[in-house]
User: Fold this.
Amino acid sequence: MHVVKITVTLALLLVSCATASSLAAEAHVAVAANFSGPMERITPLFEKASGHKLIIAYGTVGKFYAQIKNGAPFELLVSADDATPIRLEKDGLAISESRFTYAFGKLVLWSARPGVVDDKGEVLKRGNFKRLAIANPKMAVYGAAAMEVIKKLGAAEQLQARFVFGENISQAYQFVATGNAEIGFVALSQIYKDGVYAAGSHWLIPATLYPQIKQDVVLLTRGKDNPAAKAFLAFLKGPEARKVIRAYGYEL
Amino acid sequence: MFLNDSDLQTIWLTIRLASIVTIILLIVGTPIAWWLARTGSRLKWPISAVVALPLVLPPSVLGFYLLLAMGPYGPVGHLTRVLGIGALPFTFWGLVLASVFYSLPFMVQTLQNAFEAIGDRPLEVAATLRASPLDTFFTVVLPMAMHGYLTASILTFAHTVGEFGVVLMIGGNIPGATRVASVQIYDYVEAMEYAHAHRMSAVMLIFSFLVLLALYIWRPNARNVIRGE
Assistant:
């Protein structure tokens, strides 16, 4: 009896393993750097639930656009804007029906030291700092948004000499976190998690000061038959992922 | 115009950086190379290894440590603040310091080879003629090592011009201060401004080729130096 039971169990186990592995796929995902925090949490949830595997690269959306145009092997783009996915659709490199907004991003001015950034952003006008870190505005959505804020405040000329440009929003964050820049524009998701702000001081910038950061995800033409990429799109719409995205301060 | 103002600015900045680094390394590298060439001390091996480290370390490691060390919470940052110089990252002089580390082996190893090639004999002769060590260095060693000095300077200069990773990590991409030619090209490529990227890259390619050509014509055995032998 026992032997039969064990054999049956083993057989079932083998069958389930075999089907799982035949269904499991890999997807290469390009992810905007501001979304790295939630992505690191969502990925294991997704991989556990689906059996698929994601191979992730973080960077600025401007660079991903150039890379994808030149044949980079990505199947999905988790963008920091909607303009880049739309451009890729026009280029025939992305599938427009697949696109949706997974989050609205928020910009903050942040210092790793308490008491430096006030909750009205007066620090930008007072100018009692030497370096202001910004993500490269040409490449990074959050960098462009930061430049908008500075222009709207009429501080562009006054601050020009103090800019230090990070390659992407992660490097801007790193410049501030290491104290090499006293203040910097970063994504809220980089300094906020589960209702708690990172140490230091910050100013949550009013939405009126910069264009809405509408973050879209899109399936790239290369990934149209990739089950892992498609499954992740569905997962990103689901409650588990949305809960994580909200925990990092994004609006949905 | 073939190159725009911003390109010319970065090229000028790159030349200035490489020149200053070469001069500093000529001054700093000479005693280190001399000591390494002449010493019988066991310390020679660990010091040689430290000097060679930038050859094998990824620039990201060097950039990361320099960023931490020169930042306000790091030892170098603390020192520069006490001395009233201020923070070094994102400044031209921060790049100079980083490049001095980065190009150190090219200066020291090349000079060391030149010094070792002189051997003991000329120094002994100078000593029997009652030349002081300093006198010997300037009247015997320096003329004999002149080829080595030239090779070391060219290599150091060219290697600093070619620096990229470290600059990217501690530079902050500031026009006129830290945006050197290699970073400018990177920005052009990433922004898909390939025409600009092509022009700057062509300048760099021709420059590098001419430097190496000059080196080989000047010293046919310089290829050993480039291999670090």
Observations:
- Chain A has two domains: 2-105+213-247, 107-204.
- Residues 107-204 of chain A form a domain with the D-Maltodextrin-Binding Protein; domain 2 fold (CATH 3.40.190.10).
- Residues 17-22 of chain A have pLDDT under 50 and may be disordered.
- The interface with chain B takes residues 62-63, 65-66, 69, 130-131, 133, 136, 138-139, 163-167, 174-175, 178-181 of chain A (CB under 8 Å).
